[in-house]
Please model this.
Amino acid sequence: MKTYLLTRIIGLFPVLFISSFLIFIIIHLIPGDPAVLLVPLVPPPTKEDIDAMRALYGFDKPILEQYVIWLGNILNGDLGQSISKPSFSVFELISSKLWVTMHVALSAFFVSILISVPLGLRMGLNPEGFLAKKFLGFYTGIGFAIPSFWLGILLILFFSVFLGLFPTGGFKSINDDPLLSLKYLFLPSLCGGIPGSVIYTNFIASSVKEIRNKEYITFAIAKGLPSSIVILKHLLKNALIPVVTVAAATLGHTVAGAVITEKVFGIPGIGRLLVDAITARDYAVIQANFMVIIIFVMFANLVADILYGWLDPRIRLD
Amino acid sequence: MQNIFIKYLNYKNMQLTEKIGFLVLFIFLLMTLFPNFVATHDPLEQDIISRLQNPSLNNIFGTDELGRDIYSRCVYGANTSVSTAFIAVLFALIVGVSTGLFSGYSGGIIDEFLSRFNDILFSFPGIIIAMALIAVTGQNAISVALVIGLVDTPIIFRVTRAVSLQIKVLPYVDAVKSAGASKYYIMLKTVLPNCSNEIFVQALLIATRAIIIESSLSFLGLGIPPPSPSWGSMLSIGRSYLYRMVWYGIIPGIFIMMLVISLQFVSRYIQRISKYSNS
Amino acid sequence: MNLLLEVKNLKTQFIVQQKTINAVNDISFSLYNNEVLGIVGESGSGKSVTVRSILRIINYPGKIVHGNILFRGADLLSLNEKDLSLIRGKEISMIFQEPSAALNPVITVGEQISEVLKQHIKLNKKQAKEEAIKILKDVGIPAPERRYHDYPHQLSGGMQQRCVISIALACKPKLLIADEPTTSLDVTIQAQILSLIVDMVKRLKIGLIFITHDIGVVSQIADKIIVMYAGKIVEEGPTSQIIDNPKHPYTIELLDSLPTLSTKKGVKLKEIKGQVPDLFNLPSGCSFHPRCSQVKKICINNIPNLKKINNKRYASCFLY
Model:
């Protein structure tokens, strides 16, 4: 297990470095001179003003040098200053929004699991039944055909406008008021969770279908264990191991879903921050944002790998 | 090549759903190529007095916040989505097939490297990558289409590479090689026909992804800029008027769904047919 | 002697690719308390399907379509799942062929024993663990307290099979079914496991059905033998009589192919000519006729029934 962990973690670093470098380069390919955007417009800026601004931010140095400086800053915890919102450091901006986005992403993930585990289990245990044969195809097709933002709008229409049960948008931190927070999160979690559940359902169904024909399941039945124990203890434990890997691998898509969900429900998270930054050409924010997303995705993959190794005793005790 | 076309379009072979799929797809094609025949109004014509009207005889799906006819804007919006998807798929096919062939055939380090890169590209959510690249290229029609194409390339790469790996070990290839044919000729002539079915099916599925990503981008405001009508941006605005006029937030979504579902049905048909015709 | 198990006209079918296979085609036999019954046959003969039908653990696409299985008077085929689970593991237990496949890889072996004790004898966690460790010791596993916490993959094949035996005998069943328990084990371990099973069965005074393709093994431990071929019983009788005086041509060939003390070194063992029949495409008439050295014209188109040759001896062959 130790070697397993070590190889995984070491493998992360080169990818992180390369991706951060790539992002840095790409962002700096954005046409337009940021120095021009930064100088105050009154009195009208002269060339010297612009040059001074450029020097101040270090835009005049060669790209590699800028990258190294940036990297150094990052490792010291300094993510830079936001260009469009100069009074905030990028770090402050991102950390405050990250907390919000976590609400959205995690609640959506939770809903996905809530839907897909029982559904997938049912389908895997009855692969010839209606659910598995007809409904799954329909469910998968629709899941990929409905844009998640439209699903969000429909949810708002039905639950907020028509039924008046839930707010149409907004956010409340779980620290401030747990019950109210959940009320605000209900629709967004469905909006992100339902599309996400499609992949999990498929995966769980096929995993369960495969496991239920294994000899140790037959043996468990031959021992006289009731089907509830056989399913929940013997079958699910085995069937969910590969699902964990898939879950982490698709965490990136959960993030993407969160970006859209935030726009639909007006939630002030990273997604909103990112979209605004792109429109305003705010380098530092864009860069840091993507880095956060990449780190998050990689971290999630690492956690998945670790979990997989830990859940399967054949790997854990090696 | 022509007989393949005719064989595929033999409508007697289709089930009901597949016929509907082709029909709807055809309608969308009409909307894309001849929008002025299908639409009832000029999509840009404003009429502030009759803004946010519910559907009526005059405006089948009502009017938007500037009094423009929603139905006509949706019809012209098809143009945006379909042409973007078309270019994206074309890009993905050209880049995906050529790199896939090259990677599979070359093997070794080149293959390793390209496959790794492809996997990383594939593992990231498409819309995130699209957003990153749009930030660089700016928001215009061509960039959006090409960016989406890039996001969808990994699937095609994978399919082509898999087939090319299988084919390259066949003795037939060696025979052609010793007859003096160039590497590229071999790859094109032997690999392509074997995966054309699969690629066609994947191309259709990529098209659905492209449509979803394009509308998501324009929903976020990062797609093709206004006043060009796009289903995504229409839904974005419709969202804020839900209490006044519900149809604005519903109708464009229905268009998206119908286009995607018709593509799914057609793709399913191709899958079914190719299973029978595969020798 | 009490009648423990009585199987009457059992028929189990599999429906694969729209074709019906009669894996078990009208089988009847009985077993008394303390008796050891050996079922011999090549793979595909239906021996495993027969015993799995008894415990009713036949998976789709298989189905028991006819017959009665009377266990101490009650017909197992008429019980519902809930009642069956009271019998499985408690009254009738089974040992599978591949212990590594039979044990759940993500649960400790100790827990897999404890759970039957908790389920059937209603022991609590602590009691079950103690009892399980005791059983592990009984089957000859050293350092049982430590082995309790091991996972299956950490044990050798022989140890795994001992664990499976522990699970099967934990609740002291009345009938033990062993489905080729030594086939996948090392040759050196086979004898150990075999004697362990026979020991435990004698000690607990229970009935044993032992399945194997090796008639040599079963001749040492069984009181009576059933020979199966292509889903049917071809010969039945007390062990000593069958070994000394086999009646059915198939049985004769099986015994002939065994090495004996007088077999010279380097001499090729005698094989049964021909191949195991394809259950999709059974030969007409007597299923064995294409491979039979004493085949007659009548065998090609007519199916022989199981006929009583003398007291306790049965064979299905037109020779009799």
Q: What stands out?
A: Chain A has a mean pLDDT of 79.
